[in-house]
Amino acid sequence: MAWKTLDEMDLDGKRVLTRVDINVPVENGEVTDTTRIERIGATVQDILNRGGKPVLLAHFGRPKGERRDDMSLQMLIPALEAVLGTPVVFAADCVGAAAAAIVDALEPGQVALLENTRFHKGEEQNDPELAAEMAKLGDIYCNDAFSAAHRAHASTEGLARLLPSCAGRLMQAELSALESALGSPEHPVLAVVGGAKVSTKLDLLGNLVDKVDVLVIGGGMANTFLAAQGHAVGASLCEHEMAPTAREILEKAENAGCQILLPTDVVVAREFKAGAENETVAANACPQDAMILDAGPESVAAIKAAIGKAKTLIWNGPLGAFEIEPFDAATNAAARYAAKLSADSHLVSVAGGGDTVAALNKSGAAADFTYISTAGGAFLEWMEGKVLPGVAALG
Question: pTM (2 decimals)?
């Protein structure tokens, strides 16, 4: 898809309405994790360096069209100023005369932060009148919130159609990484898909089997596939009602020439707790009173061998119950191997999704992956082959 970047825009003296995702965790009015703020830094600095006036649009929480003090973006100003290293001026609304006065009074080197877009009911309804009011505050629209790009809201989709538009640096990095992983990847392409339930990732699996060469299925999802093949899974997390669907996916993969890797050995335990007594058994030999909590060493060896042959890796979801030891072993081993190959430039590795980011951070592998998306739902919908309204509007 063709979309413009900041490089193609004349920013000098221009008001740049910049949609960002700074929906950060806050406790007692203090930001506890500044990752999302750090990620908008490149875009804000680029606009400032080229003589533009960054005017930040963002949502926070789910106020559902009501003004709520506990969801005001004003509390984020100390963290924004600390991370961005520049003064941030706050407007108590994202439209209207008061917001316009703040934007018009911006001095070089300053950033404007407009109040929570979701304080207006029209934001989530993609109300054209609200988008038009927002558009009055800017000369250029820059979307740097890939994580909100799967929502057709006034500040993500409607506004992009009213002003000259482009992707910010974070959006550009996300789109470029995903294009390299799924749009025009270097083959062989391997995907790791884990997590609890097949039912939540049907669209993803259906799209991937047509696009990747090898699909590794792990976590609770793998149990459903094993059960669908007639293997007993004991007391494991398993969607038995999804067995026909799992078999359809296996058949579709075979017809598409996509190899599916399921565990051949598994780590089982009688209780779900750290350090629980466990054993490794064949994937078709789970005791009736035990639950499968991780892939076994034989399975890990097969996954690593497949990763070693791949040129492109897409990762979404853990291979086991990574939150507790020792059931993080398979995820850690496979992730660290992928990270090593990526660091040595033998592999392009792109990962995303909440549990995925947590698992890769826990394994120590995250830093060496080619790209890790923090986008969650937007990342998944892109992998599912869906059109993201916030991206399509930039085209």
Answer: 0.84
